[in-house]
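One-letter codes give the sequence; the integers encode the fold. A sample entry reads:
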Amino acid sequence: MVMIQEIFAIISVWLVQNTRAAPCPRSPSELNATSTDSSLAPSSFVDLSAIVSLLAADTVEDKVVSPAAPIWERMSTMWTLFGLVGAVRAYAKLALGLGRAEAAGVNLGGGGAYTTVRTKMAKSFRRVEGEGEEWWQDDRGSLLQAIYDDAQHSRWQRPIVIVLGYARCPLAGRHASRQVVNVAVNVAITVVLATIPLATLRIMERYMNDTQSTGVWTATLVLCFSTTAIAGCAVPLALVLYTTAPYARLEDNHGRDFPSSIINPNDTVMTPSAKGPCFILWQDTREAPRLRPGDVAPHRRAGDLKRVRILAALASAGVLAYYILNYVTLSSATTLQSYVWLGLQIVIMSARFVLWSSPRRFLDHSHRHVTVLYVVAGSLSYALPASGDDHWQQRRLTRPVVNAAVALAGSLLNNVHGSTAMLRQPTLALLADSGAPADILRAEYVDVAALHLEAPTLRLIRLPWSFMEQLYTLEGLILGKNPWAYGGLYLAACLVDGRFVGLTTVFALNKPDVSARLLATLQKSSSPAFFGVKAAGITRELCIVDNLVDGSILGTATPLEGEDYERWHVQFRKNVAECRAAAVPNGPEDVEVHTRHAAPASMGSKHVTRTENNMRDALAFVRTATDAEKSKDHHRCKGYCVIEAMVA
């Protein structure tokens, strides 16, 4: 309403200033005689129209790109000429590339929801067991954003949110007919309202009987109609169609057992910050996720598709051409016609603002709103105890947990602008295959020199802090202070013939001169000549490591004068022990099951929660809900799809 008051205030001041100068209506002969003297409408009228148009431009742009805007609100941006500058900006960004637009300094608003290119507000998503498979997603204004907000206020320090899937009414029966009819009605309303002001000029044809004026009016009307069809109907429908939920339908997620397959290789994960929650998005267990219908490459969104960008380019060019040509048409109109046109545009714009501020439910039946089922927990399965317990030392790491921890660590590092060079999924996955204990930080340290003499196949697998932090979070523990930030040392798991035997620590040799001196002593002592080999690290036992991620032992070096590595290793191992001893439980052992729907605020919000004793019970309930989804009657669904198991 503030916007409407500003508009009427501007109009009032303009009318007061131009009352004496307002020209009288002209006869047809006068119109023809003067039509060649002015190529545009009166300057004061053009100034007023431009001011009103710019006032509405920002809200129009926001409606066009907002992922939460209903389809009718997107279409309504073309109802009136005022505000179309915002539509030109939005479609131009989409056509040129949303990532490029933001890199050039243009604010995206909600446009980041339509691209997987990295933008300022986008978060990094990674696929479980997918080496280097990552993309970016901006979820502002979407249903996932509501889930993010819920997780921030949960009972767990770092909640683990598993988005199990969504339910949506099928495009059949009354849902299909209502959706098709509503889209058709919105299209008709959009075309009619966009053309009414121009049509009014033709109704007053005694003021427009010049052949040239009629031709310009006809061209403007045709351009208005075609632009409205593309920018007001085709592009909004394409944005909604090709930007679907980044997780699978609930009924497609079946066959997951407890606890081994809570996470499948196709699932995606995201963690926004070091202290933030972890998000695991279930995908269809039968195939790789395709987030848009009919597209082969996964994880691409509407703004990444050439066909959508071409439509946006046509819409942007068409709107701009129509905007300019409309004022050329008004240059052949009388002052009375200009006032009538201006009055109709303001009335339509005012009605649009009223509907935007107080939406009517009957306008929003074009969507089949989804409902998301998700759980919030403190661990994936069985939580490790914070204090030492030998019984739990018998439990081993599983590949799904290791793979999820690697993916979550990669997402975290991307989101905090860190490096993922030391985070290699195939290498860390060997920990699960080797039988490493779930509580790996409590494993014993081994004598690397003795193992190397007995088993030359010894491998040292680096355990990055980012990985260890996420691994223990998934196992229900929050570790203490980061000990890896100490003096260039790192922790490594020792594998002999693919079998986990214990831990060791490695000092990274970042100084080339020290590395060369140690390698020289190694060559003189017992090993054959090394050509092109670099000493990357050294263990407590002075064993030279050739790689800081997946290393093997080159041999044992002799101590260098003035270099004391012993005390560094001792202090680092003490820090690791203190880090594990300071670990605390992530939170309560029970699990919350939630549902949220994506209907707009005008249809009311629905958020249902239930609590289960553990993850096993929660997944048993999920299995029941999934089975019910396959055969349920959708006649109970009003506005959004009801998950009957949650309201039974």
Remarks:
- Confidence is low (pLDDT under 50) at residues 1-41, 289-297, 524-529.
- The radius of gyration is 33 Å.
